[in-house]
Design goal:
heterodimer; A: 424 residues; alpha/beta; FAD/NAD(P)-binding domain; Enolase-like, domain 1; five-stranded parallel β-sheet; 10 helices; 25 strands; B: 462 residues; mainly alpha; Alpha-Beta Plaits; two-stranded antiparallel ribbon
Chain lengths: 424, 462
Amino acid sequence: MHVVIIGNGITGVTVARELRKRSSDTRITLVSGESLQHWSRPALMYIYMGHMRPEDTVPYPEHFWAKNRIERVQGWVEGIDTAAHQARLAGGQTLAYDQLVLATGSQPNKFGWPGQDLDRVTGMYSLQDLERIDRASAGLRQAVIVGGGLIGVELAEMLHSRGVHVVFLVREASYWSNALPTEESALVTELVRAEGIELRLQTELKEILGDAQGAARAVVTSDGDEVPCQLVGLTAGVRPNLSALQDSGIETGRGVLVDDTLATSAPDVWAAGDCAEIRRPEGQRNLLQQVWYTGRLQGERVARNILGDVAPYDPGIWFNSAKFFDLEWHTYGTVLPNPPADEQHLVWQDRPARKLLRLVFGPDGALRGMNALGIRYRHRVFERWIAEKRDADYVLGHLREANFDPELYRRPEPRIVAALRSQL
Amino acid sequence: MSQLIQIGNPTRPALAVGGAPALSRPEKGAAALTALGALLFLASFVVPKGTLAGWLPLVGSTVLFAGGASAFFWFAYRDTTPGIKNHGLWTNGATARGVVGWILGVALTGFYCLLYWYSGPLEGGIRLLDPLALALSGKPADQWFLYGYLYTVAVLVMGVRMFWRYRHNRYQLIRTASVMFFQLGFGFLIPNVLKAMNQPEFYFTYFWPLKPEYLLPFSQGWTINGGSLGFAMIVWGAAMTFLATPVLTYFFGKRWYCSWVCGCGGLAETLGDPFRHLSDNSERAWKIERWMIHSVLLLIIGVTAVGWIHEWMGRPWWGDGGQALYYKTYGFVIGAMFSGVIGVGFYPLMGSRVWCRFGCPMAATLGIIQRFFSRFRITTNGGQCISCGNCSTYCEMGIDVRAYAQKGENIVRASCVGCGVCAAVCPRGVLKLENGPVGDRFPGADKPVSAALEALGLKERQ
């Protein structure tokens, strides 16, 4: 059996690794247009900031691929012939497959802004984007970033590290308030400003103005302000990358539509990771998961399904983490930005020290989720407590055991527990 | 097509255009003071003898240099928020094996060569230190006093840098304070004061096998020259080697020594910190490391055994107890060449722990205990690793930490000195240094002897 995987991000590579772990005779080919090497996309920012060289972001040594007999092809897939079981590469080369996995990831959103295709306007997603940003950095004094999510704040930190003044346009009234509850969002908003970023809330991009050479020279904001700049970063979220699917007949919605086993509408074609949109029963929103961990989980599932160990994808208990400048954020379970009335939220924060813990309990009193800023907690412990439906009394009584801060740190739990018990 | 997409290609993309923002005015001022202190010190090597005599030039140059440098680091870090600031380390030539890095490497190496073999040109600097040497040890300074002084100043000044740099991280603050304390007290003041008391120049923080002479027959001489204190030193050395080392390593891992107490470790963790990312973390380097470090350990065991046999047989082979030959061979090859010239001189080229990784016999014994008979490990936090590579890049021991973290495995490696920097640089808070039950660390860890035999290839892997 020959499995062709399009995309060598975390999802595609997980599929390949999992296939090899479970089957020694499957032929595996990984295709990528971006880079022959698998590398860690979340590490993009560290290359720009000079923390790492590009090769330091490569998780597996070169001999790993030969040793595990994973063939690699560099090229952009331009079309898929599902009837003939072939993928067509730019340049005309074709790749025959028995099973095909689409792990094409996503691409930065562009919302049809005038000037969005000018020079020195870029997303922050691929190595090519990074190269563009790096090229534009010579003589760069002021940059405008559009869209207040995780990538926006990363780009702000990157540019800031090289002494660039950053104007950060955010549509919402507070940073990332469509994902973070009020207190967390306020804390991060404060932090971004303290770092010296010019954060303009409730401000959208109206137009990007170009100079005579066709490069961005300024943006016009929704309040009519003209902000001069030499770089515009578009970080208003990502959408599934469907460029490989043109005319393939594979059903797509926002992403590649798959059933709960991650199979697409075409025979022997699967999709996983950022590009996959998992159909849900009538009345429920389809599932689009676009983070590192879900790419890995979906990749593992696809590999097993291909080998006949078929089961529906189980997203498990949600988790995610990120870093806003120096502030670490972890979330385990479900924490909605606008808490429903029947949930109990216990929130502790130390505003000057930039530490926060939110514990969310459902109507039955069982732990549903947590958000932590500036304190590390054990993932597996919280996962277990959520699965075991632990109540507030239990969680507060055992909170200290879940702390994952480095040794010799002052443990905040006595203060947290005292404060939160009084909220009960 | 893009250049950058050839990740891992030797023709690296030119990702160095921006670099760090220029120095601020206070930074420039502090740098000028530091340079002035350094110049005053360097002047002592060239001005006519006796020009810079007395306390004033010594205190002046020290205060200008140490004070200026400490202020410089404060000005450099005070406007940044507390957190990891590795900006530009791989794009700045001084810390990325550029021209400045090579100049630094050659200068450090050159200094060690002068120190060990041609100390003549150092005479001026040695005389500058006479007031301090006389006050501490009652004897004029020699080149080793100069070395100890510079070494201690380096640990203290670069320790202050660590304080500013890691002011958000209590583990790093306390650990740095510890290496500064041990270097100043046990690495510099106490040995010199012992000299003043006509006692052997003894380092309470170095033991066999790092200091083989402390357990070689000629250390018996101390009981004659040093009386009861000399006897206590021998007892102390033996107790540290055979009792404290295994017990402390069992409870805390080798870090209790390598990154909290040891002078070589202290210099690596302070002066060497800007170069920690230059350690080679390839599997090949790991293989070379294992062969070299264990060969040195075997050599020391052999030398010690031969030394005692020689003694018991009534010194048939060399006229004396073998001191002269010992210092000429071991002292030259390991002590001078390896731990000094290469170990420190190559900081800007091969990272801060060349000696500790490839040469130190103490690290070898501690490592064996840590790998199989210790409660220490680095744990990973669930499934949160994003494979970014910061941990592997900033591991001064060249451990590919990511290879374990991305699989959710504990890191249990003989070489880990427990500096804690992997856990500090991890942007997802995945790593934590912990002590816990020995058997929980890796599959098979509950049978340490079996695990050790398997690792040596003497027993079939389960």
